[in-house]
Amino acid sequence: MTQASVSELNERVPGRRWTVRLDAAGRGSAEVRVSCSRPACADLRLPSAADGRRAAVAHLKAHLRAAVSPRPTAQCACRADGCHAHVPDTDRSARTEPWRCGGPVVLTVIADRAGRWWRALECCSRCAAAIPGARTTAAAPASGPPDAGGPPLTTANAATGAGAGAGADGRPGGGPGAGTPRFSDRSAQSGAQVPPARPTPTRHRPRPATIAQRVVPDDLRPVELRDELVALGDLFRAYQRRDQPDLALLADLHTRKAHAFAAWAEACGDRRLRLDARRAEQAADAARAQHEHRTGLSAAGDRPPVARLLTGAAQWDHARSVLAHVVATAPLPGPQVRLLVTMLTLRTAHSGTGHLVGQDLTGMGLSEPEDLIARLTDCGWLHIPGTPAELLASRPENPVSLTVPSLTPRTDAPAPFAFGKKVRPKLSGWAQRVVSDKKLRKAGAAPGTRFLALTLATRCTADGRLGTGGDGIDLDRLAVTCAVDLVELRCLVDQLTAADWVEGPAVTDGRLTGRLTERVLPLTCPLPQPGLVDGSR
């Protein structure tokens, strides 16, 4: 045999290694990506993590079926440095000898406990036995022990017959696997047995039942409550694996969760469980409202839901915060001032600057708009580049820029409002729709009537009843908000009734009760339900 052939036999081929990974496909999506370390394997995108795990395991099994048995001439693919079995440099002083690979080559599968990657590799049986959780799928033929007096058996001398006895058929070696390469393990060269693979530990203790990251105690009583909590946890996890959302089902699950957590709080006396029950009620209401908006049907199915101009509870709270800010900081007295200040605040709420045209002012029903603007500029609350007359004469193609210094952002003081620049035009459009309502304009409603309409639109229930829970609004407080006395307030309520804004108004025990009409419900901002959050507003 030539020297080149001997050199080729002495060279050991590197062990094969395949790694299949499962990663998220992107933010805000449940899709996952399955990738393989082999360049010829294309990535896969699947709709859920469960589908991705099944595809990853099937892909790795396909590689194992296509692969030939472990090659006896392969090097240990653990690469020594990253192997669990090899001792770190800092601990080698505690051992008489460093870890060495040994034993026949095996095909081993290692899986991540979290289900994020799966790996198959050719490695020695000794490393496979030392890696926790490793499973051997196939093994190369074992080598026989060398002669006592001969040199260690290697690929080179096995090919030439040196150091090995001849069998009955005249070929080198007398048993199967003779001539296969050996690793550098001394115990393997001396004929010692390779330590067996460590068995995979089994879990004897079942996983505890959980719901909303809370462990359901095994001794929770009554038993029916524990069974309900365990079942709800399973149902929520099953819902998360759905391909398409079902908001009606989600609302029912949150409602059941709210009742179950309330009963759990009573059984344990845990205040945090009561808070979780309230959050579940709010989540149920939000999911039910979204379902109504998507399907066009109410939860009871009796009538379609109200398509409101402001579509969420956060926007409704922002509208109330603007009115509260105007009542607390209006620079001048009177209902006309409060109406005008409200509209100007909504135009300039985000940056302190905005644009206005004369038509916006003339549509408010102000008695003397020019004098009112002059008074606001004289007191320093409003800045305009020209005169009030020029502002009233401005056209939509040439709007006037105005500034409210108190709303200009400053580094030394917090912003008066929490909403951003995208919500501000929605709030401004909502207020403009209320103020310029067709029936209010036809009736020649006074500015105080229009400001009262804005106030009542933010202080009603979802079905239009005035007050939190429909119990009415305190009359004295309403008069202070609108900057009028009680006699004038009753006149304003009568004007709203004539304009088909309010039906059945009545004053009982100093509270104004009644209901907003069906036609103005899209302009309302319902108050939170009692029991969920503080409804004192």
Brief descriptors of the model:
about 525 residues; alpha+beta; six-stranded antiparallel beta sheet; three-stranded antiparallel beta sheet; elongated
Would you kindly provide a written description of the structure presented here, covering whatever features stand out?
By secondary structure, the protein is an alpha+beta fold. The chain folds into 3 domains: 128 residues, no CATH class; 86 residues; 211 residues, no CATH class. 39% of the residues lie in helices and 12% in strands. Strands 3-2-1-5-4-6 form a 6-stranded antiparallel sheet. The longest helix has 25 residues. It is elongated. The chain starts with a helix and ends in a 21-residue tail after the last strand.
The major beta sheet can be summarized as: 6 strands, antiparallel
Tell me, rounded to a whole number, the average pLDDT.
78
Tally of DSSP helical segments: 18
Q: Which structural class should the secondary elements be placed in?
A: alpha+beta
Instruction: Compute the separation of the termini in Å.
Output: 98 Å
Order of strands across the widest beta sheet?
3-2-1-5-4-6
Number of strands: 13
Number of domains: 3
- General form: elongated
Low-confidence segments, ≥5 residues, pLDDT <50? 1-10, 89-96, 144-195, 531-537
Rg to the nearest angstrom?
A: 40 Å
Helix percentage range: 25-40%
Strand content bin: 5-15%
